[in-house]
Amino acid sequence: MDAPVLAVDGPGGSGKGTVCRAVTEAMGWHLLDSGAIYRALAVAAGRRGLDVSDTAALVDLAHGLDVVFEPQPDGTIRVLVDGDDVSVQLRSEQTGDLASRVAAVPAARDALLARQRAFRKPPGLVADGRDMGTVVFPDATLKIFLTASAEERALRRHNQLKEQGVDVSLADLLDEIAVRDERDRNRAVAPLVPAADAEELDTTGLSVDAVVERVLKLLQKQL
Ligand code: C5P
Asked: Which reaction does it catalyse (predicted)?
């Protein structure tokens, strides 16, 4: 039998990243940060000056994407693209925006499918993304769809960036979140929608610990 998968989908800022890392640690499982793969593709495209509307070139690049995730002793993950450390650039708003445009190209998504599925290994996988439960792991053991109000998501992102020493206005972040949500929800392929069999969890006003506890309880019931 395939290793169990917890699929966690939802918009940016819904708390997915934090919750997925905590659940991964509690379970001793592997973690797939699928957004980081789209971000890595965006960085690789930018480095080559590639026009993302050039689908054939983008798909070629996706197939041959040279990305390495290196877990560090402090719990962070160093990301190398073409052998260069792009960890900081990967998290920028600009990269996030380009990633969401790259991710709207169906053939580029297809080209990254096998790479994502290869993360499924014993004892289990926590998969963080937008289409984990709908497209990448339709047979996931448990599917969670995390949401939070746009205001709360903008605030969380603001605090996160501030911790990293990045100063952006809250209003700008709220605008960017709205634009990216719209694009992710309305794209033709793998739009951001909950799987029919997903548990929806609104994290507005909930602490990380409370969400993690709830997810772990639901997961234990399925194992
Ligand atoms: O989650 P993160 O902000 O790192 O993702 C960057 C972008 O990659 C998202 O805005 C989304 O457009 C895209 N993405 C996706 N499918 C995934 C993960 C991310 O389309 N499974």
From this structure: CMP + ATP = CDP + ADP; dCMP + ATP = dCDP + ADP
